[in-house]
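Interim report to the steering committee. The following record documents the input for Ammonium transporter (466 residues).
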Amino acid sequence: MSIFYPDNLSTSEASPEWLNKADNAWQLTAAAMVGLQSVPGLVILYGSMVKKKWAVNSAFMAFYAFAAVLICWVLFAHHLAFGKKLIFIVGEIDEAFTQEQLRQQFKRDYHVPKADYVFYQFAFAAITVILLGGSLLGRMKFYAWMLFVPLWLTFSYTVGAFTIWGDGFLERGRIIDFSGGYVIHLSSGIAGFTAAYWVGPRNSQDRQHFPPNNILHMLAGAGFLWMGWTGFNGGSPLAAGTITSLAVLNTHICTATSLLVWLSLDMIFYKKSSVIGAIQGMITGLVCITPGAGIVQSWAALIMGAMSGSIPWYTMMVLHKRSAFFQSVDDTLGVFHTHAVAGVLGGLLSGIFAETNLLRMFYLQDNYGPGLLCSIGENRISGGLRQMGYQILGALFITVWNVMITSAICFLISRVVNLRMDEKDLLVGDDAVHGEEAYALWGDGERDPPPLWFRTPRMPALFRRH
């Protein structure tokens, strides 16, 4: 069977020598898996983890953010995050992408097209904004959210990405962040908590009683999140190599350990095995391993899982309830604990457990590390302490920047539209906000009575309401 190409497109242009088809196939798969974490993963998780009257609004916030981030990302945000340096914290907006740019080799040491990287990084950006939204469910005005998403992506996320992953002042030979413990999770946790402060709390009834409306769907959404993390961490090397395999295995080891530890603590102290608790433990494990997935040994991933299942459990289940500061901010899904606390923990533990040879394999240079523990064995303790200093500096910068910029964005939006819904809308929920309900079954959610034919005795018994 022969393949015919147009006159202006040769075989070498369609499949150039630098292209590794296995790497390309894996990278596209990994990017799709990260996208599936958001749509439908977090759409399902948010829509089922909240009170019934907020199911549509919560799911739709995630659905809208995914689309809005994509358009902003390809138009200008990718350039801000990964373009040529404008200043030390952000890139410059170059011309719009052309097909020649997207089809060219991403970088000399990687054998995938630039389009792969653009899409993969978009999926990262989208899930960051959606995770942040978990702090705001059940009361943020949807029109305010529509403005918040592009503004926060532009002025907060791109700065963190450029500073640590692009060409910023923390990138070259400094911060270890394999897949976004700082760029994604710490920033979403801090920004979500900050935005929750400015938006204000849910109404008192919702805050005191906020049961999930569908536990089984909640588990399904969590499953998308867990298995999608295979691409989240496995895609960062941009190649289907050995370090990719290690990153994937470590991801699941840490996650399973964290889930079991969180579940055990719930059973010990509360005498019940909570499904919500298990999901929270799953999330903290995924977050904690993210900054070090492919640059630590599997035994270290096990330790990281034990710590991510216990330390965030303590801050959420004990410290949060005792602290007036935490009680004053209504973080709906506890994103501060599951992402900010677990993200910082993972970043610091990566600075301790990172292996020199694995760092060299991932970063393709010798400027990173060594991890503190490894530096002791290599008699390079000063290098290990210096790396820990960089890890702390990165956490401080991401925290301070997100507090300042998120506050400024909320203040700006509040001058245009109220951040928080009206009290009457808060009482009704989805029907008041969108004119739709998640479970509009007969007799429950319909404003008008069913048609006469539906109530007639001649209707088949299968369709009659008993």
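The two ends are 63 Å apart (CA to CA). The committee is asked to note this result when reviewing the revised timeline.
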